[in-house]
From TrEMBL:
Its cofactor is Mg(2+). Keywords: ATP-binding, DNA damage, DNA recombination, DNA repair, Helicase, Hydrolase, Nucleotide-binding. Residues 436-648 form the Helitron helicase-like domain. It comes from Phytophthora rubi. PANTHER family: ATP-DEPENDENT DNA HELICASE, PTHR10492. It is an enzyme of class 5 (isomerase). Residues 1114-1264 form the DNA helicase Pif1-like DEAD-box helicase domain. It catalyses: ATP + H2O = ADP + phosphate + H(+). GO terms for biological process: DNA recombination; DNA repair; telomere maintenance. This is ATP-dependent DNA helicase. Pfam families: Helitron_like_N, PIF1. Residues 15-30, 70-88 have a biased composition (Basic and acidic residues). GO terms for molecular function: 5'-3' DNA helicase activity; ATP binding; hydrolase activity.
């Protein structure tokens, strides 16, 4: 009764009266709390909690939801009314209260709280974890925002700070940076334009209509720095697929000259386009006809209506019309057309404002001298066959390109915009482009603009905005390379670029070896490799790991995730979830009946983000079992929908090891439609694979006539384990008959063969594709994590590099490589613009440096004072660890009992103070030592000692063993017992095998064999053979028995052979299984290459024997050359493999070459014969022209290379060849030889010897070279 009377009284109050009462209550409550003691406060709070619990218990579900919504709105209003100082004071007061409360708790109360949390998490897990299609009911699905067994977002609310429609769980930072971003609202769109947006035909061609009226052209840069148009990728979407606008490359808007281009040779003028139409045609009717000529499919009436609207509403249209009038006047007065320049204004009349351009503010000015230093306004030339690039910082960037989204010419972002009311966020006052765009993405109350009506044009705009943001970030990266290289990548931390290098000086990275006799590092290639590519390190353009989505970002995320695996073990569950465009929240918030989910990527991204957060919360709370660790990565499908990969590690007692638990966790059978119709609908709609198979050969999953996903799956009565893969889940046969669902028919008896594994609880609750797989038995866990962090799909991308003829070797530019290797879809653009996370982990990974004493990096300019530089604080995580262990403070004593990588579990690294500090609050953290190559000897053994020694106090202490200070870390590790019986190499391989892919592990193994003294190679091989051969074991998993084992071992040895060959070694130099044990596989491998098969089987052996049998007929001179070359073929030695056979015509050169070719080919080796001309090639058995064989370019220069790719069959042929002859060599230009030499060095990974170390014979009459 009292509550009802109080509610009626509040309903009769005005907003001001209600706020006054609240303020009085707040002040009275504050005074009461200030007068209370701590015990009284605790007692009062306990009473409040009991009262609130009782009140909540008496509420219905609807009342509780409404109450929560009111509370959120009231709290948001309260926060918005606070000043910045009041907000900070409130936060400080809350922290102080919580600290006081925690300090007053006894040990028993703390433990009771922890136990309460554990019981709560366990009860949630027990409630939801083990449900399947047999015992599942909708009533099981509980939790926040659940309605009738489905997860539903609460109703949208209005942000009190910016009047944007948003969901309650969305942060105030997302839409307006908590009031810091304030922009003028977009002007309402003209009524006729809104009518056009309501027509299907106009919406289908909206991009063409926009482009017809745009003032600028839009495109992306290609690999040769040329401009190209951007359009729908039909290879991805298909002719009838869901439309999704994507770009690849650097986005750009381009403004041409005011007059069409005139060909100086013919005098022919091109048709006017873009802004030129306004200049050339003053008549509106004529302009509409010109646009019709460019885009023939457009409607005449619509074109005229838009033309009229542009002339009336768009200031840029009026300005260009003024340009045309002024231009005609200037030409009539005899001004040379080449001297006419105009300036396009968009500067607001008052500094600090962001006003819209009006008719009175636009005009034209004739620039006489043209001497304007970087004008902000656009400078337009009357006639010039050039395109002017509009940069992202130009506020006219958007209105010039999107007149149908901004018909009134609303200006966009520029770098001078600042936060409202002088606000500051993270020490900056300027508004970022991303923050500006995020503000526009949120629809405001009463918004009547055209922006969100654009459909496909809106897709293009959001992709363009994301491209602008990314290019702004990359531009900063490109201009701050010195700081980036110095701060993060001076050297080869984590061996990302090349494991076999260490960096000595800025710009110098060379291969190094450890001389055991001298006890120091030596650099054998310093004098022999002046042009070594790694010397370009100081010039390379680096994309740092802070750039989300870049290769270093993904590599770092992968390494961090593998650190979690090393700490907690392999993942147990692999979850993949995909956005459902039919979610009710998406459909309800797209109010236009003509729009669909792909037309509003902003709504799709926001709903997806909240659904994903709810799913992750469920997983963290134990829906599939009590969780130890988790990682997730969001990816974006080419058709526009996002999906997430989630890997979960469960506590030991909850791991799905038995058939019963797996069946409860994962189902691959249709649920009972009568018992749970909603789950049945979800499975039929979202969890059915196909259609594919022989009847659907064009299905995306079909490869070589079979489904790449293995569907249809076999029907089995019980779940079976798979020794290295997902389990074979239970799929029982159903009743015979036909199952019809939404017009599709299935064989009811075998329909379970097509069900994708799912968890009933998650599928029921979230109504989308959620594939749940048990992955406990998968041993190739690194492949799973690599798959998760693979990044965007690059299969449709082709990159063609055009070398600069003035630059002998293009400097590696990771920024351009990144731009050319990624595409942006609309949903991804919105997620990134709204600053949503695209990957996450339950644990914070702390990267721990490993450097020698005095080897930490110090940043300084050449002009800095050395004394000042020397005094800078250069403490690192390792030196601060030593200080912590040496400290006598009581709170630091724990460090003396810990290893280096264990420190982050107890302490956090304060990067500003450069020291380890106690955590203010608990955070799950894992330490990860950066990887060090074994070739960096001292750092490698320093790392070994840091992994085994507890509580070291200094570098010297690490070198001290049993009271003796050893001169090197290697000797200290040896005397400490870490090097006995190859222990350091076993430890090295063990650690590397926990995160390196098999190919990288084989590279490390080869490095150890060549550069380290491994005493028992065979034992090391046996111990790690499983990891070394893991990739091939997966590739040949369908083979059986001894054939499978032989094939896996053979391919592992073959790859090891290639790696050892680079350093001049072979498999037979070590105590390893030999390739000769697999003769049939060696021959089969070679014959798989048709080029190699042609060389091995394409010659008539009778003819070869006939030539070889006449070898005795060679004269003494020919015989001496024959013996010397054959010896080089049989026993190649460095420096003795390049020959010149010189002699005038008729001296027997061709005869000699035929005998050598026959002998080499009869011995089972490959000999390649080429000549400079086709006629000369016919004289050699199997001869071909050099241009054809080596793919020599027709146009040569001193920097040319051959078109031979490392993965090509030709490369494998050249690698397998033992001997190469080039006849009539003097008839070829030197640039051809240099191109072949350069290419062979590259593809054979041997740049120390001519022609990549092949036995090479150049033959001909060198006396003819003077004639050339």
């Amino acid at each position: 009764m009292n509550r009802t009377r109080e509610a009626a009284r509040r309903a009769g109050q005005t907003d001001n009266e209600r706020e006054t009462v609240r303020q009085i209550n707040r002040e009275r409550n504050a005074a009461t709390r200030a007068a209370q003691t701590n015990d009284q406060q605790f007692a009062s709070q306990a009473l409040d909690r009991e009262r609130h619990a009782s009140m909540r218990a008496s509420q219905s579900e609807g009342e509780r939801t409404a109450s929560q919504a009111l509370d959120r709105e009231r709290h948001a209003s309260m926060r918005s009314s606070q000043t910045e100082e009041e907000r900070l004071a409130s936060q400080a007061n809350s922290r102080e209260q919580h600290a006081t409360r925690r300090a007053a708790l006894t040990e028993q109360e703390v433990e009771a709280r922890r136990e309460h949390d554990r019981i709560r998490r366990k009860s949630i897990k027990r409630c939801h974890g083990h449900v399947n299609h047999e015992n599942f009911r909708v009533s099981v699905v509980t939790g926040e925002n659940v309605v009738n067994g489905r997860h539903r977002l609460p109703p949208t609310i209005v942000c009190p700070l910016c009047q944007a429609w948003k969901w309650p769980d969305e942060s105030d930072f997302v839409c307006c940076m908590k009031g810091r971003v304030k922009l003028h609202p977009l002007q309402p769109a003209p009524g006729r334009l809104l009518e056009l947006y309501g027509e299907n035909e106009f919406r289908r061609h909206v991009r063409a209509y926009n482009q017809a009226f745009a003032f600028t052209s839009i495109g992306a840069s290609s690999s040769d720095n040329t401009f190209r148009a951007v359009d729908q990728d039909q290879d991805v979407a298909g002719q009838h697929g869901v439309y999704s606008y994507r770009i690849q490359g650097a986005m750009g808007h381009y403004l041409g000259s005011m007059l069409p281009y005139v060909d100086p040779a013919t005098g022919e003028r091109t048709a006017p386009k873009f802004a030129q139409i306004y200049i050339v045609d003053p008549d509106m009717q004529t302009r509409a006809q010109r646009r019709k000529g460019i885009y023939a499919d457009l409607d005449n009436v619509a074109l005229k209506d838009i033309e009229d609207m542009m002339e009336r509403c768009n200031p840029f249209s009026q300005q260009f019309l003024n340009f045309g009038e002024k231009l005609r006047e200037d030409l009539a007065n005899g001004v040379d057309v080449m001297d006419i320049q105009y300036r396009l204004h968009a500067k607001p009349p008052q500094p600090g404002t962001h006003n819209l351009p009006t008719v009175s503010e636009v005009g034209a000015a004739l620039i006489d001298d043209g001497n304007i230093a970087k004008p902000r306004d656009l400078l337009l030339l009357a006639r010039d066959h050039r395109l002017l690039r509009l940069f992202e910082t130009d506020e006219k960037y958007d209105p010039l390109q999107y007149p149908l989204l901004f018909p009134h010419g609303d200006l966009g972002w520029t770098h001078t915009l600042t936060y409202a009311d002088g606000a500051v966020y993270r020490n900056k006052r300027k508004m970022a482009l991303r923050e500006h765009t995020a503000y526009r993405l949120f629809q405001k109350v009463g918004d009547q603009s055209a922006l969100h009506q654009g459909g496909r044009l809106f897709q293009q705009w959001v992709v363009d905005q994301r491209a602008k943001c990314e290019q702004e970030q990359l531009r900063w990266v490109a201009t701050h390379q010195k700081e980036i290289r110095a701060n993060q990548y001076h050297g080869v931390e984590d061996a990302l670029l090349n494991e076999n290098t260490i960096t000595l000086d800025e710009g110098e990275g060379i291969l190094s070896e450890y001389d055991r006799t001298r006890g120091e590092l030596v650099h054998p290639d310093r004098q022999h490799r002046e042009d070594h590519f790694l010397r370009q390190i100081g010039k390379r353009v680096i994309l740092p790991d802070s750039h989300v989505g870049g290769p270093r970002f993904k590599y770092k995320a992968y390494q961090d995730s593998m650190a979690i695996v090393r700490e907690y073990g392999k993942p147990d569950v692999f979850v993949t979830t995909t956005c459902n465009p039919k979610w009710e929240e998406i459909e309800e918030n797209i109010t236009d009946p003509l729009q669909s989910a792909q037309d509003r990527p902003d709504i799709v991204a926001r709903v997806w983000q909240q659904k994903l957060k709810a799913l992750l919360k469920d997983l963290d709370e134990g829906v599939l079992g009590r969780l130890l660790a988790r990682i997730y990565v969001v990816e974006f499908q080419k058709r526009g929908l996002p999906h997430a990969h989630i890997l979960i590690i469960l506590e030991d007692e909850d791991k799905p090891r038995t058939r019963e638990i797996i069946d409860k966790l994962v189902s691959t059978e249709l649920p009972d439609k009568n018992v749970n119709p909603d789950l049945f609908d979800t499975v039929m709609t979202c969890m059915m694979h196909g259609p594919c198979g022989e009847a659907f050969p064009s299905s995306p999953c079909m490869k070589d006539g079979k489904c790449s996903k293995g569907f249809p799956k076999p029907l089995v009565e019980v779940t079976r384990a798979n020794p290295d893969g997902y389990p074979v889940y239970r799929r029982r046969r159903r009743e015979p008959g036909v199952l019809t669902y939404k017009g599709k028919t299935y064989d009811n008896e075998t329909v379970n063969q097509w069900v994708v594994p799912y968890n009933p609880y998650l599928s029921q609750k979230y109504d989308c594709h959620i594939n749940v797989e048990v992955c406990t038995a998968i041993t190739a866990i690194k492949y799973m994590y690599k798959y998760v962090y693979k990044g965007s799909d690059r299969a449709v991308i082709t990159i063609e590099a055009v070398r600069d003829p003035t630059n002998p070797r293009d400097e590696p530019n990771e920024i351009l490589r990144f731009l050319n290797a990624r595409y942006i879809s609309p949903v991804e653009a919105c997620m990134r613009l709204l600053a949503f996370e695209i990957q996450g982990k339950t644990h914070s990974i702390i990267r721990l440096t490993v450097h020698l004493e005095g080897g930490q990096m110090i940043v300084f300019e050449p002009t800095d004072d050395p004394a000042v530089v020397a005094e800078r604080d250069c403490r690192t995580t390792v030196t601060s660890f030593f200080e912590l262990c040496a400290s006598e403070e009581a709170e630091d004593q724990i460090a003396k009992t810990m290893l280096y990588h264990e420190i982050p579990k107890q302490l956090s690294w304060d990067n500003k103070a450069k020291k380890w500090v106690r955590r203010s609050k608990y955070q799950a953290a894992i330490g990860r030592l950066i990887h060090v190559s074994p070739r960096d000897i001292e750092r490698f053994y320093l790392r070994v000692l840091l992994c085994h020694r507890r509580g070291p106090t200094s570098f010297k202490d690490l070198q001290t063993v049993d009271g003796v200070v050893h001169p090197t870390f290697q000797k200290a590790a040896m005397y400490a017992g870490f090097l006995e019986n190859d222990q350091e190499w076993v430890a090295c391989m063990s650690e590397a095998s926990s995160f390196k892919m098999p190919i990288a592990l084989r590279q490390l193994f080869a490095t150890l064999l060549v550069y380290s003294q491994v005493s028992d190679v065979h034992a090391l091989w046996d111990q790690f053979y499983g990891e070394l051969s893991r990739g091939f074991a997966f590739t040949y998993r369908n083979l059986e028995g001894q054939t499978k084992e032989d094939t896996i071992q053979f391919h592992t040895l073959m790859h090891l052979k290639d790696l050892l060959q680079i350093s001049g070694y072979a498999v037979h130099h070590f105590e390893l299984p030999q390739l000769c044990e697999h003769r049939e596989l060696v021959l089969t491998s070679l014959l798989e290459n048709n080029l190699i098969r042609r060389e091995l089987e394409g010659y008539n052996h009778d003819v070869l024997h006939g030539v070889h049998d006449r070898t005795d007929e060679l004269n003494d001179g020919q015989r001496a050359i024959y013996d010397q070359i054959m010896d080089a073929v049989e026993r190649p030695q460095i420096g003795k493999k390049l020959f010149f056979v010189d002699g005038p015509g008729g001296t027997g050169k061709s005869t000699l070459l035929r005998h050598i070719l026959a002998s080499v080919r009869l011995s089972g080796k490959i000999a390649i014969a080429v000549s400079s001309s086709g006629i000369a090639a016919l004289l050699l058995m199997g001869g071909r022209t050099a241009h054809s064989t080596f793919k020599i370019p027709l146009k040569l220069n001193e920097h040319s290379t051959c078109s031979i790719y490392k993965q090509s069959k030709l490369r494998k042929l050249l690698q397998a060849a033992s001997f190469i002859i080039w006849d009539e060599a003097p008839m070829t230009h030197r640039h051809a030889f240099e191109a072949v030499d350069r290419s062979l060095r590259d593809i054979l990974d041997n740049d120390q010897e001519p022609f990549g170390g092949k036995t090479f014979v150049l033959s001909g009459d060198f006396r003819k070279s003077s004639l050339l």
